[in-house]
Amino acid sequence: MAICRNCGAQYSDGEDRCPYCGASHAEEAGRIVREDLREFERQREEVKALPKKQLKKRTKAALIVLAVLAAAVLIWAAAGRIWGDASLGWKAAREDEATETMESYFQAGEYQELYDYYLSRDSHSPSDEKYWEAASAWSWMEFMRETKAALSGTEESYGYYGISYALSGCAEALRTIEQGLDDGIERGNEEVLRGFEEEILTFFREDLKMSEEEIEAVKTMEEESDFEAMDDRIMERLGLD
Q1: How far is 185 from 211, CA to CA, in rounded Å?
Q2: Taking Cα atoms as reference points, which of 208, 203, 211, 187 lies closest to residue 135?
Q3: Is 129 exposed, middle or buried (0-12, 13-18, 19+ CB in 10 A)?
């Protein structure tokens, strides 16, 4: 498999260009040129073995072939450089446009749109992690928002997702937030992540009446049975049995 030096995608060795970004496959292009040169060398050796009378004719033909081959190599190299520069420019412009779009969603607090747009893209740069951390945490908090809405209504409206789903989603959101805040990289999303963290903790303490010990336990839970057991205790505490 070949690895594109422009976009990093993998593709078949036989391709002379990356099928994803269009950048030239330098190794394949070099192989083709080397094969042409070897063929020319073979023909040159044949010419050496010919009688002098035939040699003049063959020499003239060989010079023509060499000139054509040299021109083709130069054109190939120039086209490759031009195409490579153009594809790099196009790729950079596309990434700049994507960053501007994600930043506008981020600044407007439109995290669902940010989440959907991020997932719609085929590739991402390391700087996109700023947007993914916020969008991912927000998405995991959807179960919490649904549960808050259900708890604020009548008892009959409760249970669209269930408290266990809210606990599980919040646990995943807290892990995403913790990783984003503790990795030592300043991305500009720290205030948003801390705001999400505070929203979750407030939900635990005020809406679910959870103790600090229970909150710490939820942060490390992974098994569905653990969330369901905590769900039962909270339901009983809130009088929703």
Answers
A1: 32
A2: 187
A3: middle
Tokens in use for 90?
């196009």
**Of 91, 76, 86, residue with least CA distance to 20:** 91
Go through the chain and tell me how many residues it has. Answer: 241
Name the range with the highest mean pLDDT among 16-20, 76-80, 135-139. 135-139
User: What is residue 172's three-state secondary structure?
Assistant: helix
pLDDT for 114 beyond 80: yes
How far apart (Å, rounded) are the C-alpha atoms in residues 233 and 237? 6
Confidence of residue 7 (pLDDT cuts 50, 70, 90): low
pLDDT at position 138 = 96
Residue-wise burial string across 60-71, b where 16 or more C-beta atoms lie within 10 A, e elsewhere: eebeeeeeeeee
> How far, rounded to the nearest angstrom, does the alpha carbon of residue 221 sit from its chain's CA centroid?
28
pTM of the model: 0.61
| Calpha distance 215→175 (Å, rounded) | 13
pLDDT in tens, 37-62: 566 566 666 655 655 545 455 555 55
The C-alpha atoms of residue 185 and residue 187 are separated, in whole angstroms, by: 6
- Phi-psi group of 211: left, alpha or beta (phi > 0 → left; psi -120 to 50 → alpha; rest → beta): beta
